[in-house]
TrEMBL record:
It comes from the Eukaryota. CDD domains: CAP_ED (cd00038), STAS_SulP_like_sulfate_transporter (cd07042). SUPFAM superfamilies: cAMP-binding domain-like, SpoIIaa-like. The lineage of its organism: Eukaryota, Sar, Alveolata, Dinophyceae, Suessiales. This is Cyclic nucleotide-binding domain-containing protein. Residues 495-577 form the STAS domain. Residues 644-786 form the Cyclic nucleotide-binding domain. Gene3D superfamilies: Jelly Rolls, STAS domain. Keywords: Membrane, Transmembrane, Transmembrane helix. It comes from Symbiodinium pilosum. The chain crosses the membrane at residues 22-42, 54-76, 83-101, 113-134, 146-170, 182-199, 206-223, 282-304, 365-385, 391-410, 422-452.
Length: 800
């Protein structure tokens, strides 16, 4: 929270002073939310005005709910500056429940209907708190992640539609406003909401939004002070809330007197049998609320990706929070909301928490001050409500509705991984408009599960196999010391082979397995995801990939993904998942990287481990050793020097073997040999790269088109990358087999314009075996050792 020592009083004071801007802005936004959204809480359609005696003040309910929930967060949450507030998303859900209550009580008094609605609100909030506590107790948060993210997006789109319609309704809610002039009040609210949205998109400053809303709320008072018009004139024309709205508490003595009287008078009117009949509906609402609360915790990922350039937001994701523990704190907060007399569901709202961190909030001082500030607002709101314009909540609803529209339907249309995503959101919007919020959630979930079931039925999902570099090994030439080092340090590399489809149901198990690797103190430093058999992934899985990348960076790990198909790459690009190229060299920072080819990716992971102990030869070894000849001497020595007989001079043997090779320079795209041809030579790469491809179909293997990589088919797989110091083609030459792979000098390499090789003709190799058997035997043993490592890798890949 600060640079000063914790025990220093001056340091503590400085830390508190740095948090004052965050406290001020968050308190201002909370007060504006209370005044704006509080007017909507019990806005039950067709409710007579004469029944107000049994309906508590929505603003008081909002503030009391926030006080109770914030106490729960302060006591039980790991988020030091966590802010809890009532759920805006529950307003349309509860309104739907109120309509259901009214439909079951057609012949009763209005007071009875409204009292039963208020009681159902309390019962539902209590159920939400208990469900969250039970879910946290049994560790059910991880199962909630299996809910399709597209359904949660559709739910928020329904909330957006409700907020936009509420913006127009609340701006012209005064009964004295004629219908013919209602648009005079709706239009300014819509325009101001649109301006707030443009301002937010332009500068992303919550402080500017809060000050703009404050200016809108202050406008009537300023006009009255300047003598332009009086508050009574504005009230008469419906431009500010009527004085009666703010005087009800004054008439009854205080806000708490009014609240107690409302609850006491409503108790005798409650129809408990109606509430018991609605228990299944309330359980469904509680489950929906739990999902939305979890979304409030998880959707921070989307916000953080959007605000990644801010240092404060990086601090927001600096540590991993336990979803179960946070759900417990929210559950306690909801129960306390009921105990203190609020009774409205609450959750940790991501936008307020991001705002707090951006403005410097780091400790529980923010939540503590917000609690006292909410209590203070309870005593002051009645004195200021009649000075506020209905345009204030109207513009706020319009702005937030447009934000939700952008974050839902616009986001889905621009980043959707399948057309069914757009269809699901459109159907949910239709259901919200004409049937109800709960119906939309149910239909959206069923549609998403049906689409995914049909699309991915019969497919295996998730991790096919996993092992470290002691089991999986790159197919490239290495010396005995390097192989020995990898046997000892192979646990620092974890190779994970992924297959099937990653979707909302299989992604949690996949991410949990990778998080275990990242959280392990003695775990791997490199994690390689081979996605060759990954056939597809959905929007939820794409966002989880981005989350894993950030987790790898925080954990000081290197997560490398490879062998992505075109459809998987397209999905990740649409979701704006950044795929950085895996850099060459021994110094690779922590983070998320992409390498197209599995063999090259694994080779670079191994090089990174070997570089720690200074074993791996660098790609530009010629520059260090002075010449091609010196470089080749070092390669041959590393390759078979330990197999030379003791009575043979090493320098003499290396000189003789080196004389058998012939230098050749090939241009990019040149094919050295094709699979199936008779083996006539092998080659050692001096500078540049050679790729070896295996053909899966006989048609690709037998055809002889023009030279170059254009002859490769979609099913052909890169099985070996030969870099400086690597031999290729010796397996066929030693065993007198045809070439198994097609060797090509790749055209996409940017390391050099051409590839330099030292070629060993088969005839000269056989001549060495005849003229100098000990030396020839040493060379063969070097070949066989490399073959044994490659054969082990191939057999393990086949078995996995």
């Amino acid at each position: 929270a600060g640079d000063a020592p914790v025990g220093n009083p001056a340091g503590k004071a400085a830390s508190v002073m740095r948090e004052i801007p965050a406290v001020g802005v968050v308190l201002l936004m909370s007060a504006i939310n209370a005044v704006s959204y509080g007017t909507l809480l019990f806005g039950m359609p067709a409710s007579p005005s004469g029944s107000a005696a049994v309906v508590p003040s929505g603003i008081s309910v909002w503030l009391l709910s926030q006080v109770g929930a914030q106490v729960g967060i302060l006591l039980f949450s790991d988020i030091q500056s966590g802010i809890c507030c009532p759920m805006v998303e529950m307003i349309p859900i509860f309104h739907g429940m109120f309509l259901t209550v009214a439909s079951r009580m057609p012949d009763t008094l209005p007071e009875e209907v409204q009292a039963t609605c208020v009681a159902s609100c309390f019962v539902c909030t209590t159920s939400i708190g208990l469900i969250l506590l039970l879910g946290a107790r049994f560790g059910l948060a991880k199962y909630l992640r299996a809910v399709p993210l597209i359904v949660l997006k559709g739910a928020l789109f329904g909330v957006a539609l409700f907020l936009i319609s509420s913006s127009l309704a609340v701006s012209a809610s005064d009964s004295r406003i004629p219908n013919s002039t209602a648009w005079h009040h709706c239009l300014p609210a819509a325009m101001l909401g649109l301006l707030l949205f443009v301002l937010d998109e332009a500068i992303h400053s919550p402080a500017a939004i809060a000050l703009s809303l404050f200016a809108i709320g202050l406008a009537p008072t300023v006009l009255d002070s300047l003598g332009i018009c009086t508050l009574s004139d504005l009230q008469q024309n419906g431009w500010v809330f009527h004085a009666d709205a703010g005087s009800s508490q004054a008439d009854s003595g205080a806000w708490y007197t009014e609240l107690v009287n409302a609850y006491a008078s409503s108790y005798d009117f409650i129809h408990w049998h109606v509430i018991m009949e609605l228990v299944p509906t309330m359980m469904g609402i509680a489950a929906s609320a739990s999902l939305l609360m979890l979304l409030g915790l998880m959707v921070g990922i989307c916000w953080v990706r959007r605000l990644m350039d801010l240092k404060a937001v990086e601090l927001l994701t600096e540590r991993e929070f336990s979803l179960d523990k946070e759900l417990r704190s929210i559950g306690v907060g909801n129960l306390l909301s009921v105990v203190v007399g609020g009774g409205w569901p609450c959750y940790i709202l991501c936008s307020l928490n991001v705002t707090c961190h951006r403005l410097g909030g780091r400790t529980r001082f923010v939540g503590l001050f917000l609690t006292f500030g909410a209590v203070l607002c309870l005593f002051l709101v009645s004195k200021f409500l009649h000075r506020l314009p209905p345009i204030l909540p109207g513009s706020l609803f319009m702005w937030l509705g447009l934000v939700f529209v952008k974050e839902t339907i616009v986001d889905i249309c621009s980043k959707h991984t399948h057309k069914s995503d757009v269809f699901i959101v459109a159907v949910m919007a239709f259901m919200v408009k004409f049937y109800g919020f709960n119906d939309a959630l149910l239909v959206g979930t069923l549609l998403a599960m049906s689409f995914f079931t049909v699309r991915y039925s019969g497919s295996q999902v998730g991790i096919r196999t996993s092992g470290d570099a002691r089991f999986y090994r790159a197919i490239c030439t290495r010396g005995f010391d390097e192989h020995s080092a990898l046997e000892e340090l192979g646990h620092l590399i974890e190779v994970v082979h992924v297959s099937g489809f990653l979707m909302f149901a299989s992604t949690p198990a996949f991410t949990d397995a990778l998080r275990e690797l990242m959280d392990a103190a003695e775990g791997p430093m490199w994690i390689l995801l081979n996605c060759q058999d990954l056939q597809g992934l959905d929007y939820s899985a794409a966002l989880e990939m981005a989350t894993l990348g950030r987790k790898a960076k925080e954990s000081q790990k290197r997560l490398v993904i490879t062998e992505l198909t075109a459809c998987v790459q397209k999905v990740l690009q649409q979701a704006h998942v950044e795929l950085k190229a895996l850099p060459a060299g021994s110094s690779v920072p922590s983070g998320f990287f992409y390498e197209p080819h599995y063999q090259r990716a694994l080779q670079r992971c191994e090089d990174g481990v070997l570089a720690r102990i200074g074993l791996r030869l660098l790609s530009k070894s010629q520059a260090l050793l002075g010449s091609e000849e010196a470089f080749m001497r070092e390669v041959l020595k590393r390759y078979f020097g330990d197999f030379l007989p003791e009575d043979i001079s090493q320098d003499f043997a290396l000189e003789k073997v080196l004389g058998l090779f012939e230098k050749t320079i090939v241009k990019p795209g040149t094919v050295l040999w094709r699979a199936g041809e008779e083996c006539m030579k092998c080659a050692c790469v001096v500078e540049g790269t050679l790729h070896a491809y295996a053909h899966r179909s006989r048609a690709n293997r037998d055809r002889t088109p023009a030279l170059g990589e254009a002859e490769l088919g979609k099913g052909d797989r890169l099985v070996c990358i030969a870099g400086p110091g690597d031999f290729i083609g010796f397996l066929a030459m030693v065993n007198h087999f045809p070439y198994e792979h097609t060797a090509i000098a790749p055209s996409e390499e940017d390391e050099s314009e051409s590839t330099t090789l030292l070629v060993l003709e088969k005839s000269r190799y056989q001549e060495l075996l005849t003229s100098d058997p000990p030396l020839g035997q040493a060379l063969v043993r070097g070949f066989l050792r490399q073959i044994s490592y490659e054969w082990r890798e191939l057999s393990r890949l086949t078995a996995s």
